[in-house]
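Changelog-adjacent note: as of this version, every example in the card shows the full chain rather than a window. The one below runs 334 residues end to end.
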Amino acid sequence: MRPMRSTSPPESASDAAPTDRWSPAGGVQLLTVPDELAGQRIDNFLQSRLKGVPRSRIYRILRKGEVRVNKGRVKAEYKLQAGDVVRVPPIRAAEQAPAAVAGDQLRQLVEESILYDDKGLLVINKPAGLAVHGGSGVRLGLIETLRQMYPESPFIELVHRLDRDTSGAIMVARKRKVLQHIQAELRAGRIGKSYLALAAGKWPRGRRVVEAPLKKNTLKSGERMVSVNPEGKPSETRFQVLERFKGATLVAAEPVTGRTHQIRVHAQFVGCPLAGDAKYTDDAVNREFREFGLKRLFLHSQLVRCTLPDGEKVEVKAPLSAELESVLQSLRDQ
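Full-length structure tokens:
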């Protein structure tokens, strides 16, 4: 439900277009959401304005009700609407860390990984090990790097996410209407996403669909784990065997739903966990794959397919890295 809008006058003269940078010396600020930011989640809105403030701190002030929208409390997933008045509390300067700056090497890596850039849509072949955004001990991710690379772009947001250890095609919107359109298509199941995965063991013949409910759990350490659980959310993944090796199977995976760690946990569920997966695969199994040169999770987003707001169909393929290609060749040569 949308928070109730108050008709009372604003508390300060800052009831205007959102500022580009947070001033730690200021007090409470009231920011009016412009049309072009309608639909953005409140947590992302705050993250882009409270420069250098840890994401955990942003979630804390939301949880405690220090952030208000139209004088009402909201959750982190609340989507702003044009004209919403956001109350942003003062943040002590001591709580702010210097904003991380992407180095030349990282910028070059991301620039070389751009597969598509047109009509407000970016598709990046994300390297494994690069988080999609900062937070949880990560100061700099893909989205922060892109914002620094495109300072002239007022809007750069993730369309969807990939796990840090997963490589491959990921979509980033440079226009709000593109973000809203593609995310609506995602919810309607009209976006194509396909992954390449190396599963340990012999994939069961005829097992092309896995339907198993998934439930997220957070350990005391803060680590997120997912398990098949009757109380979890309905989840479905379609698998296709591409190549069989001694002790491993290369599969294509298409997630029908988009749950956290879905492909990884569904593969584990059928007895073929993914090679190199530190969360869901036994260490002994991963050691065997290291002998073939595998030093990371073998899960790669190989293709994304979508329709742009003007009706144009876009299909982008992300080539497999030389490292993973070498692993496959080593398996063929054994």
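Structural remarks: Confidence is low (pLDDT under 50) at residues 4-25.
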